[in-house]
Specification:
This protein is an alpha/beta fold. The protein has helices at about 1-20, 25-30, 35-45, 60-75, 85-95, 110-120, 135-140, 165-175, 185-190, 205-210, 220-225, 240-245, 265-275, 305, 330, 345-355, 365-375, 380-395, 400-410; strands spanning about 50-55, 80-85, 100-105, 120-130, 145-150, 175-180, 195-200, 230-235, 255-260, 280, 295, 315, 335-340, 360. The strands form two sheets. It has a seven-stranded parallel beta sheet, with helices on both faces. Helix 6 (about 110-120) packs across helix 7. The two termini are about 35 Å apart. The mean pLDDT is about 95.
Length: about 400
């Protein structure tokens, strides 16, 4: 199995090298790993107290960020190394000030793993959520470097829990500690004999709760809304935009704020073309007559989490695709949330659907029905919002639990 795994890693590297000729993302992936060992050796000072954090992408980074910040504040003498697998994480957070050095994780080959550890010599490795790179982990196990996973989440359809998953289970069993998001994950780990676990919850909730306490003003958005009710659509993809465009005539008095997941020029242009004359672009709207505009398209990154404060209702994108984006921010503001049917990988969405704070819609008709219901029922709208906010308050606090468990490794 090891031979097959290493061949698949080699093939992945070859494929991405070839794809880099045609794909911008693949090119970032490949170019970002060039001369990685020389760069790492030059940037890191020799230390016996380096803490290595690894995040697959931006979402995992946001989950781990509260822990990184606490380690920086509570243990200022430790160096912090932050690695990413994906360009979507590295390119956004490569200048993260709480880390001493940020880089891509080298391809998971035995040679890369040994060289990486020779250079970094981490005191502790903290993997965020669910990345388990076999060669890096095995190399750390041989060197007795403790490895913990924070905000870990598992599902029964993963290979670890299949009859043919023994090789993968062996890798998991070497991990020193799992800080799990939910009881299901604990039970699954227990079913394969892993008991070095604790139910800590999701550290993202701490980050979100902290963020919503910081009030930011958006005078142009308020001017656009002009006191009318607002549906805020966050992290939308083309299908979501088409769906929302199709329901605009049903709600002539409702303002729509659309925040696409991708804000590159081509996608913003397509989005504006779709909504047509009813739409105004955030960065070009100051001189336009807003009275006739029903849709505001936000083409600036970094605003969405704070914009939700201005919403009465929210729609979260990609529920009709690979899986919804974060519902935590609007939930923390106490706003009802709607999304498509692909949400089951996200515990908070599953929980809040059961509690009727957020709502799954399967098509245009259901979306119209749920929007109309909450537009016409303020008490029910506020009640659903309270359910969301209370959930965030109930579940936050994972950072303290994790830091308590990490103490033995950090001191």
């Amino acid at each position: 199995m090891t031979i097959l795994y290493n061949f698949s890693i080699w093939f992945l590297g070859l494929f991405l090298t070839l794809a880099a000729r045609f794909s911008h993302k693949a090119r970032l992936w490949v170019d970002g790993r060039k001369s990685w060992s020389e760069k790492l050796s030059a940037e890191l000072r020799k230390s016996s107290s380096l803490i290595w954090f690894h995040a697959s992408s931006l979402g995992e980074f946001e989950q781990g960020r509260p822990i990184i910040e606490r380690v920086r504040n509570d243990y200022p003498n430790h160096q912090i190394l932050l690695t990413f697998y994906s360009p979507s994480g590295y390119e956004v957070r490569k200048d993260f000030s709480k880390a001493d050095y940020v880089c891509y994780l080298p391809l998971d080959t035995p040679g890369n793993a040994e060289k990486f550890l020779d250079i970094t010599r981490p005191k502790l490795a903290i993997f965020i959520r669910y990345e388990f790179w076999h060669n890096f982990l095995r190399a750390m196990f041989k060197r007795d470097i403790p490895v913990v996973t924070v905000s870990a989440i598992f599902r029964k359809n993963q290979i670890f829990f299949k009859p043919y998953g023994a090789w993968f289970r062996k890798t998991l069993r070497g991990i020193s500690y799992f800080f799990a998001q939910n009881q299901v994950s604990l039970d699954l780990l227990d079913s394969i004999g892993i008991t070095n676990t604790v139910l800590s919850g999701d550290t993202r909730l701490d980050r979100v709760w902290e963020a919503v306490q910081k009030k930011r003003e958006f005078p142009f958005v308020k001017k656009f809304l002009a006191g009318k009710m607002c549906l805020m659509a966050g992290s939308t993809w083309p299908y979501d935009n088409k769906l929302l465009n199709g329901i605009l005539p049903e709600f002539p008095d409702l303002k729509f704020v659309i925040v696409p997941h991708h804000v590159d020029d081509a996608n913003i242009r397509r989005t504006m073309d779709l909504f047509g004359d009813r739409a105004v672009l955030y960065t070009q709207g100051e001189d336009q007559d807003l009275q006739e505009k029903q849709v505001l398209v936000v083409d600036t990154m970094g605003m969405l989490a704070y914009l939700y404060r201005l919403a009465d209702l929210t729609y979260i994108g990609e529920g009709f695709g690979k899986g919804i984006h974060s519902i935590l921010e609007p939930a923390a503001f106490g706003i009802p949330v709607f999304f498509g049917p692909n949400y089951h990988k996200f515990q908070e969405a599953v929980d809040l659907v059961e509690r009727r704070g957020v709502f799954c819609v399967k098509d245009r008709t259901q979306l119209i029905e749920v929007i109309r219901y909450f537009v016409n029922n303020e008490e029910e709208r506020q009640g659903a919002g309270r359910i969301c906010r209370d959930y965030i308050i109930e579940k936050k606090g994972a950072t303290e639990k994790v830091m308590g468990g990490l103490k033995e490794f950090l001191e």
